User: Fold this.
Amino acid sequence: MNRYWSKRLGEITAYQAGEQPQDRTYIKLNTNENPYPPSGKVLARLNQVDTEMLRRYPDPDARLLKQAIASYYDLEPGMVFTGNGSDEVLGHVFMAFFDQSAPVCFPDITYSFYPIYCARYGLSYIQIPLTSDFRIDPDTYPDRCGGIILANPNAPTGRFLEPAQIKKLLGRNPDSVIVIDEAYIDFGGASCIPMIREYPNLLVVQTLSKSRSLAGLRVGFALGQMGLICGLEIAKNSFNSYPLGSLAIAGAIEAINDQDHYLQCTGKVAETRDWLSGCLLGLGFDVIPSLANFLMIRHASVQAEVLYQKLRERGILVRYFNAPRISDYIRVSIGTRADMQEFLRNIGEITAAGTSIGTKAVSLPL
Assistant:
C-alpha cells in the first residue's frame, strides 16, 4: 500500500476484468463480447462525424439517446438514465440508493463488482447463497433490507429468474430499491422493464456492450420511475457531468434503432449457445442452464484450471474463477459457430487426454 493512498482505497480489492492479451491472436471466449460486428448504421453514422462535434462538449443529458431508448421501451425520456457503460451506471446506483443504515443484499455467486462498489461507498452487505443448482431463491431474501441487486440472467452462472419471482421481492421490500442488472437479458430472458410503471422501487440496468456489439463505445443505461432517475442524475452530476462522448451517443442511437440487426445477432448467439450446450453434454460436461451469451461448464475428470490453462496454450481464452463453489467451472463466452467448433475440437482433445494432464473427482449434483 502506498503511503499516499487513502485508508478506504487501501481497503479495496479492485475488480479483475477478463484478460485482454496482446502477445498473439486468440479466440476470445472470456469476456462475453458479442462475436458479431455492430450495426452497419452505427459505422455509417460514426463516419459522418465532423470536427465541430468533436471540439465541443457533448450534450451532458444525452437527450437524443434518452429519447431513442424511451421510444424503444415505450417509456418517457425522464425515465431513462445514461452512463459510460453499465458499470458506471451501477456505481451511481450504489451511491444514490444504498446507504449505511442497512445492508445491501445480493447472491453469493454473482457479478464480482457488487462487493467492490460496497467497499468503495462504505456499505455493508449480505450475500444470499444460491441454491445447490445455482438458482436465485427470492424466499431466502429478507423482507426489509437496504436494497437488493440481482443480475438477471445471473453472472457468471447464466441462470434466469422469472419476473414473477422478482415481483415477490418488490412487494415485500416497498421501501427499498430493487435493482435488476439485465446485462444479458437480450439473449433469451424476459425483461422486468414492463413492471417499471407498477413499482416505483424498481430500477432496471442494461448495456449496449453485449447484445449490440458496442463494448468499445461504453454505453449503459438505467430505466425506472422519475424519482429514481432524478436521484441518479444528482449522483452523476456530483461526479462527471459529461459521461458520454458525442461518438458514443451517436453510435448508440443507431444501435438502438436498428432492431433487425439486433434481433439477428442475438438470435444467432442464442442458437449457438443451445447447440454448444448439447455438444458439451455429449462430451461429458456438466452445463448450467443459461439464457446469457455464455455457459458455465465443468468436467467430471479434468480440473477447471487445467482446462483453462490448456485452452490458453492452444490460443483459446476462457474465464476461470478461483472462488468458492465455482472453482470446478470455467465460463465460456459464445463466439461464432466457427469459434465454437474450434473450441469443441480442442476441449475434446484435452478431456480425452485428461488422465495425463491432471484429473479430479468431481461430484455432479445437477
In short: The chain is about 40% helix and 15% strand. The chain has two domains: 7-35+260-357, 40-258. The first helix runs from residue 7 to 10.
